[in-house]
Amino acid sequence: MSDNFEPKILGILCNWCSYAGADLAGTSRLKYPANIRIVKVMCSGRVEPTLILKAFQEGADGVLISGCHPGDCHYVDGNIKTLRRTPLVARLLTQIGIEPERFKQVWVSASEGEKFGKIVEQMVEDIKKVGPYQKKMGDQLDVVMHEVAASAKEAAAAEEKGGSNCGS
Amino acid sequence: MAPKLQLAIYWAAACGGCDVAILDTDEKILNIAEAADIVLWPIAMDFKYEDIYKMEPGSIDVCLFNGAIRTSEQEELAKALRARSKFMIAFGACAAWGGIPSLANLTNREGIFNTVYKETATTINEEDIRPDTNYPGPEGELHLPRIYDRVWSLDQVVDVDYYVPGCPPTPETIWTAILAIVTGNLPPKGTVIGGTKSLCDTCEREKTEKKITQFKRPFEIIADPKKCLLEQGLVCCGPVTRDGCGHRCTNNNMPCRGCYGPSEKVSDQGAKLLNAIASIMDVKDEKSAQELAATWEDPAGTVYRFSLAKSLIYDYKKGGE
Fold first, then answer.
1. pLDDT reported for residue B158
2. Domains in chain B: boundaries
3. What is the value of ipTM here, to two decimals?
4. Of B238, B200, B199, B232, which is closest to residue B218 (Cα–Cα)?
5. Quick check: A56 contacting B, CB < 8 Å?
6. pTM greater than 0.95
7. CATH topology of domain B5-101+149-183
8. Which domains does chain A have, with CATH numbers?
């Protein structure tokens, strides 16, 4: 993989703690990688797995979800729903072939700007190691195989008669 | 009398259950035979591919296509039949959402070949011989279809008019579909011929507050036939699955497996079910959530049993963006 790969990370942050935390990182003029695109939601508990898959379908290299620390939720137990979901989502993603580095769920409070910066930094570093997300179009390998087969066929085409309709 | 309906039935990556399901319409099969000429049905009658290529575009009224697409042959036939059919119907869960064959997408061609031709205990293949698409036989070079790196649903390969869900579709569903075609009383393009609600919505089991304290598999317990199966720790796909199947599984005390596909308002059946299950896990801290989640044997295989090819992660048109 080329050295200048810059991962695209989608950050989904809750309105009450984590977005304020990210905001604090900004207003404190902390330096952290610009790889993250942040979407604000009212609560991390509303981030259903469909949205995470959608992010990857659209070409994100990683997804970061952040909410209030357990016990601090603006809606009392929204983040409890997040913490129930996380281990299942992590397992699902691993099973469908998405590296664990690409998905992270963290807790960031409104005062933890510095922590937020560090999390993003770490995540960018981790994703750079695994490289860009490969969309599951399934035909990359097929196309290559096809081309190899076609060129081999062309070479042998002189004495070849037409093949069947299928299988080439 | 109106001219008879020209009906084609074809199978791709399928088990044959869908073809049997057509016969399962019992005495109505006679009505089908009365209303339609079957111009192609490889499982039941003798046809050659050249017979298809000889047909004119539009000469088939309805093509019931069952099975997913995973080889070059299946793709070519799907395209050939699409070009000749007025209505292309994805028949059964495999054609509609990839079905069981699309669980192969959890790995890839290389992984499958390794398992089949190398790793299984009973395989002896010292020369590591793998299937090849070309074979130089004495009568000239022979060609075999190429197997793809992933499994596709029918609508990711060709344009599809209607979906008939199920593994296999129930006789009632099939009859509804055929009746709609024969009478010309057609729903809008893209309609899934089935219920409009979720299975849970029409399930008559007793539902109280749902909590899962441990994931169980159907063979591990004898479920209470009156109580909601989810409440008993069995992963039932009812919350996200389309009804219209007649509750065959839940009536027989088995959790719904999801073969009627995502219900009307669900785009990704598996992700949505995972979400529903997570919300009823009876845990309040990260450690116990990890522990409870670990008791679920195979999340991806359970939530996507019939629809992995149409999971957002895999939902692309073949060869396109």
1. 96
2. 5-101+149-183, 109-148, 199-310
3. 0.91
4. B232
5. yes
6. no
7. Rossmann fold (3.40.50)
8. 9-131 (3.40.50)
